[in-house]
Write a sequence for this structure.
């Protein structure tokens, strides 16, 4: 049986832009197994993706409110969180960090898992 990422309790950092539809983040959460397909909207309605939520996402503010590094924005924030250097936005659970990014309109996708534990 495959292990779902949702069982790992990691932080998800999504890449957001004005060029991508809002549903891209929801589809990604569904594809990773955090919730069933088609239930991304109801899954996030309780605020779990926000600061202090059970699944903090875009902890650096995303490129709409922070900075843009030509596709490396989620990786940069993932490293900051994994190192415990997030300051006021630091999430308490950062032993495993999921860095997720997609290009085009869900045409390309990349995933990286960062950890504080040796392999």
């Amino acid at each position: 049986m495959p292990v779902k990422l949702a069982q790992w309790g990691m932080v998800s950092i999504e890449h957001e832009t004005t060029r991508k539809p809002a549903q891209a983040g929801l589809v990604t959460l569904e594809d990773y197994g955090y919730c069933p397909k088609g239930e991304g909207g109801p899954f996030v309605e309780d605020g779990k993706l926000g600061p202090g939520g059970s699944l903090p996402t875009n902890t650096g503010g995303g490129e709409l409110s922070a900075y843009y590094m030509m596709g490396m924005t989620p990786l940069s924030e993932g490293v900051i969180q994994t190192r415990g250097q997030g300051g006021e936005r630091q999430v308490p659970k950062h032993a495993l960090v999921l860095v997720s990014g997609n290009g085009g309109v869900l045409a390309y996708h990349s995933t990286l898992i960062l950890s504080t534990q040796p392999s």
The first strand starts at residue 11 and ends at 13. The chain has four helices and three strands. The longest helix spans residues 73-83. The CA atoms of residues 28 and 99 lie 11 Å apart.
